[in-house]
């Protein structure tokens, strides 16, 4: 079952606008290697889950993976071939509102090369352009 909130205050929300860059969730806080979003998008819960599974399979469940995004926005759709009017459609899936610069996943506790390979594989499961970022070393 994909990620979704246990409870929400409002069952349906307005779409809003996707503009600007991430001013939070844009620092590597937990791991050593991170996957960074380069485009604005609504990332579905199924996309996040597919990327998570790909990462865990690649690293053989060694190290630690942090998922930095959570799908908390209900996206509603009206059924196909339905006339206009009669209210807003039912919630169809949950999405995370992603802005450019947001950290999506972080990996720590394993070799940086393997972590980067796992994040490349995860990036292939996502519908946006991403880049891999490394935590600066303190020398």
From TrEMBL:
Pfam families to which the protein is assigned, alphabetical: Ribosomal_L16
GO annotation (BP), single: translation
Keyword DNA-binding part of the UniProt annotation: no
Example of a GO cellular component annotation carried by this entry: cytosolic large ribosomal subunit
InterPro entries in the cross-refs: Ribosomal_uL16, Ribosomal_uL16_bact-type, Ribosomal_uL16_CS, Ribosomal_uL16_dom, Ribosomal_uL16_sf
Ribosomal protein is among the record's keywords: yes
Coiled coil, from the record: none
Keywords recorded for this protein, A-Z: Ribonucleoprotein, Ribosomal protein, RNA-binding, rRNA-binding, tRNA-binding
MF annotations from Gene Ontology: rRNA binding; structural constituent of ribosome; tRNA binding
UniProt record similarity statement: Belongs to the universal ribosomal protein uL16 family.
Binding partners and assembly: Part of the 50S ribosomal subunit.
Function recorded in the entry: Binds 23S rRNA and is also seen to make contacts with the A and possibly P site tRNAs.
Name the record gives this protein: Large ribosomal subunit protein uL16
Species this chain originates from: Treponema parvum
């Amino acid at each position: 079952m994909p990620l979704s909130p246990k409870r929400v205050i409002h069952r349906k929300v307005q779409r809003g606008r996707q503009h600007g860059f991430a001013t939070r969730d844009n620092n590597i806080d937990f791991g050593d290697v991170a996957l960074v979003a380069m485009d604005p998008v609504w990332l579905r819960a199924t996309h996040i889950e597919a990327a998570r599974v790909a990462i865990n399979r690649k690293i053989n469940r060694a190290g630690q993976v942090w998922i930095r995004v959570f799908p908390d926005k209900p996206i509603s759709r009206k059924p196909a071939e339905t006339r206009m009017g009669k209210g807003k459609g039912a919630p169809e899936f949950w999405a995370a509102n992603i802005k450019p610069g947001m950290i999506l996943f972080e990996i720590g506790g394993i070799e940086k090369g393997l972590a980067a390979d796992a994040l490349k594989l995860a990036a292939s499961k996502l519908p946006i352009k991403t880049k891999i970022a490394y935590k600066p070393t303190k020398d």
